[in-house]
Design a protein that fits this description.
Layout (H helix, E strand, L loop, with lengths): L1 E2 L10 H9 L11 H14 L3 E5 L2 H12 L4 E6 L3 H4 L4 H6 L2 E5 L8 H7 L10 E8 L12 H13 L3 E5 L3 H8 L3 H6 L3 E5 L10 E5 L1 H13 L8 H13 L4 H17 L3 E3 L8 E6 L4 H10 L2 E2 L1 E2 L4 E5 L6 H15 L2
Parallel strand pairs: 1-11, 3-4, 3-5, 5-6, 6-7
Antiparallel strand pairs: 2-8, 7-8, 9-10, 10-13, 12-13
Bound molecules: pyridoxal-5'-phosphate.
């Protein structure tokens, strides 16, 4: 089976497992796990932030950041397809008593003018209080699209002008960085808080990193414990994350090349529609014109290709480190057979 459902389906390599096996560990609740400490220091440096914290998942990372930046009753401005709005089980309301203000963007990007319009007037006590602007880079639901740096800079100006926090869901910031050549520290520098996944394209089995100022991370450490995220000999998994950051970051360009090859194939099939402009990194979302998405998914699976359903009209394919060129050639053949018939 060629599994293109997500870049989260990867298996830890032998070398990664060896790093996990060899990891020096301690009790991380006492901050005594050398491997976790090393990962956090390495990630903070890479992201150009004062401090970082290893957390269990991307959702926990985003939600911890949002919780610490807000008080109950506050509002967060985000794009309508944002992960925090669609795929985090209403956690902002459940865990922090806050609500989201989603704005319709283009390829996941919202403009400073749209954000200005969404900010609540400070004098209106009967309205929610705007507290945070959130950006997702790359943008999952928009198809792995990259948020242009100039727009990030302009959104930052809006945040500063209105005394708002700026949070980055950088689950796949690594992909954006490799594609544009812009350092992750440059991207992160515009944000108060960032959350980045180790378990997506980087191929670690578990874990995310949040980063920001020291005081913020101290608070996040406290809240992570309150949410049941305090881990003990977590160095076993932190070692995989550190291995992933050191060894699997630059190679993400290979995933992008493979996604581009598949995109070309899909564009040539007559029964599907793809916006080639949206294929910027490792995610492809393509509309099925000739059958239901469920039917299309089954036909591909019967031939050895597993895809996920993006929405009622579209399928999703994601390239990752367990997919080689041979797999891409086979996937292309299957796609032609299913969608050119
Ligand atoms: C943009 C984005 N943010 C956050 C997450 C959440 O990550 P996790 O599944 O580790 O909780 C994901 C997962 O797909 C994601 O794509």
């Amino acid at each position: 089976m060629i599994d293109l459902r997500s870049d989260t389906v990867t298996q830890p390599s032998q070398a990664m497992r060896k790093a996990m096996y060899d990891a020096e560990v301690g009790d991380d609740v006492f901050k005594e796990d050398k491997s976790v400490n090393e990962l956090e220091e390495y990630a903070a440096e890479l992201l150009g932030k004062e401090a970082a914290l290893f957390v269990t998942s991307g959702v926990m990372g985003n939600q911890l950041c949002l919780n610490i930046l807000t008080s109950p009753g506050d509002e967060i401005i985000c794009e309508k397809d944002a992960h925090i709005f669609n795929y985090e089980s209403s956690a902002p309301s459940m865990l922090s008593g806050i609500q989201l203000f989603p704005i319709i963007g283009k390829q996941g990007v919202i403009t400073p003018a749209q954000v200005e319009e969404a900010i609540r007037p400070k004098t209106a006590y009967y309205m929610p209080r705007t507290k945070v602007i959130e950006v997702e880079n790359t943008h999952n639901r928009a198809g792995g699209t990259i948020h242009p740096l100039d727009n990030i800079k302009d959104l930052k100006k809006v945040a500063v002008a209105h005394n708002l926090y700026f949070h980055l869901d950088g689950a796949r910031i690594w992909n954006a960085s490799v594609k544009t050549g812009i350092k992750v520290s440059e991207y992160a520098s515009y944000f108060d808080t960032v959350s980045c996944c180790l378990s997506k394209g980087l191929g670690a089995p578990v874990g995310s990193i949040i980063a920001g100022e020291k005081d913020f991370i101290t608070e996040a450490f406290r809240m992570r414990k309150a949410w049941g995220g305090g881990m003990r000999q977590a160095g076993v998994i932190a070692a995989a994350g550190l291995y992933a950051l050191k060894n699997n970051f630059e190679r993400l360009s290979e995933d992008h090349e493979k996604a581009a090859i598949l995109a070309t194939t899909i564009a040539e099939c007559k029964n599907v529609k793809i916006d080639l402009d949206s294929v910027q990194t490792n995610i492809l979302i393509f509309e099925i014109l000739s059958m239901s998405v469920e039917e299309a998914q089954i036909k591909c699976k019967e031939r050895g290709l597993i895809l996920s359903i993006a929405n009622k009209k579209a399928l999703r394919a994601v390239t990752h480190l367990d997919i080689n060129s041979d797999d891409i050639n086979k996937a292309a053949l299957i796609l032609r057979e299913v969608f050119n018939g």
